[in-house]
Design a protein that fits this description.
Layout: H1 2-50, E1 56-58, E2 64-70, E3 74-80, E4 83-88, H2 94-100
Antiparallel strand pairs: 1-2, 2-3, 3-4
Family: Belongs to the YajC family.
Keywords: Cell membrane, Membrane, Protein transport, Translocation, Transmembrane, Transmembrane helix, Transport
Pfam families: YajC
Amino acid sequence: MNNWILLQADGMSGIMGQVFLFGSIILIMYFFMIRPQQKKQKDAKNFLESVKKGDNVVTIGGVHGKIYSLEDDTVLLELDKGLKIKVEKSAISPEFTKKANGIK
């Protein structure tokens, strides 16, 4: 009878160990995967909101240009004198723009 009670108590500590292990894995995933991605998205959103006329930018496709005019969700880029293209604001890459302008 005593052995049966001891075996049940040992089983509960095993479950608690598994819960602790599962909780640890979730915390590690949050701090190494989810949180940095959220920070990157926030920085990209702030960058896109802060672009203004005359800024040199690079699109996701690698097109370099200067912002000629801004609308709600679109940007008119001047690639060369008289050559302008219209792109979505979300197509501007914060990472490539910072590299091209020498900003870290």
